[in-house]
UniProtKB/TrEMBL annotation:
<dbReference type="Pfam" id="PF08308">
    <property type="entry name" value="PEGA"/>
</dbReference>
<keyword id="KW-0732">Signal</keyword>
<feature type="domain" description="PEGA">
    <location>
        <begin position="191"/>
        <end position="231"/>
    </location>
</feature>
<feature type="signal peptide">
    <location>
        <begin position="1"/>
        <end position="28"/>
    </location>
</feature>
<keyword id="KW-0472">Membrane</keyword>
<feature type="transmembrane region" description="Helical">
    <location>
        <begin position="410"/>
        <end position="430"/>
    </location>
</feature>
<keyword id="KW-0812">Transmembrane</keyword>
<protein>
    <submittedName>
        <fullName>PEGA domain-containing protein</fullName>
    </submittedName>
</protein>
<feature type="region of interest" description="Disordered">
    <location>
        <begin position="367"/>
        <end position="401"/>
    </location>
</feature>
<feature type="transmembrane region" description="Helical">
    <location>
        <begin position="468"/>
        <end position="489"/>
    </location>
</feature>
<dbReference type="InterPro" id="IPR013229">
    <property type="entry name" value="PEGA"/>
</dbReference>
<keyword id="KW-1133">Transmembrane helix</keyword>
Amino acid sequence: MRSVSLTSVPKPTPFALLLCLLCTAAQAAPHRLVVSSGDCRDAELSGQSKAFYDSLRARPEQRVLGAPEFAERLFPAPARSFEDLQRQLDAAQDQFYEGRNAKATQLLDDALRDIKRLPAGEERWKLFVHAQLLHGLNHRALGKLKDSDAAFLQVLRLQPTYQLDPDQYAPSLRQAFEKLRRDLARAPKVNLSVKSTLPASDVYLDGLGVGQTPLTQELPAGAYDISVVKGDVVSFPRQVQAQGVDTPLLVDLAYEGSVTAAPFPCLAVADGNEERTLSHAVRLGGTLGVEEVIVVRLERPSSGPKWFAATVLNVEGGQKLREGGFKTQGLEAPSEALNALVDFVTTGRSPSNLVVMNNANGRAPWDASARVPPASSTGADLTAPSRLSEEADLSTSTAPPGTGLRTASYVALGAGVAGLGGAGIVRLLAQKDLDDLEARRAATGGRLVGTDSQTVALRDSLVKKSDLMTGLLIGGGAAVVTGAVLYLVSSPAKPPPSLTLGVAADGTGAAASVSGSF
């Protein structure tokens, strides 16, 4: 008879269960975000970005923030229209009058959740007021006076002059409403200051327009849903806690307005400023709580093929981790190239047929100054990184023919002009000595006396200045001639600039000039 030993399994402790739940939550949290940059209305950019995102998300080990979650976090849309919500409020009112208060509460709470997602403006505010007043009536019927007052205050805190319709509200209810108005007027207020990076932007609190930036609004303390709008540019939805004496708020509407969710998460780029785009991408990743942001884009150089490129950014440190891309044609990217690019951005490994830029000093093939090597024969039309780096080194180390001679000609001409100009200055300085010497000659009856120390000093000074002027004229003239010869024999890569050389001399001195574009 065989004996069987049984080992008891200890029950998991609450701490172990909590740790397991935390680990599961950490594994489920999104790790990466894919966002395109460029013209967000470009169908080709959106299509290829979506294909890259699908290829990345299809891998089971990758935790990528989904496009629907992106839209829900930054641009929550209502499930129902204004008309649908108005009908739901009418249904809630019917439930209230029929005494089914619990059902009325359910309908009102459900409607308010969607009302807060509507675009800010007068229509939203009217629905909000209607829902809150119904809430106040319904809570009072249930005996929940504090909840009823809180609902009425949601209207009065932004519209303190709001009046209840005497045909619809009983005198006792209007008296309670007036008491709330008086109490609110005596309550301490908070100065909410709102500024925007786009001037004269409209500010909405709970959907009600309260003015334009820069705005300072005196409000009762509490939480407010705030939106800042400038034309078609809308800020991210946010809630601000007005508390203390002052609550300042700065909304970077230029950044937030550049983000769109449809047809694919995108950062609009109007001026081609790559550094600003990458900075916005890092901020976006921080807002959404991801570790890395992958910015994908279409590069269209002035000549050569188009490139689909991806840049991986670390959100915490703001560093560019790696960048890669492949040639593309048409609206769809080759699946082989997409998979290779996904391999690279997720692992850092470089497939042999993928262009890779691993350091900040490298130069991508889509840069205007870089030369693209011959196409690969792999079928996907990709370029090997080793050949790219060789071409880049050649293009940066080899100067166009004649550039050195042309530079030397400019240096020689400049030196020559400086020499001739110096000779002219020396000639002007010598004129004073010459005038003094002539004065000494006149004082001694037209003769120069060799024993006169002042006369000897003037004569020696004139001799030195004469020698210096002669040297400058000879040296400057030689430099001008040398520069002109070098200029003529050099062969620039572009048409030579217009150049004019002038030299003039008379009994009082000499002058030289060079004019034109250098």
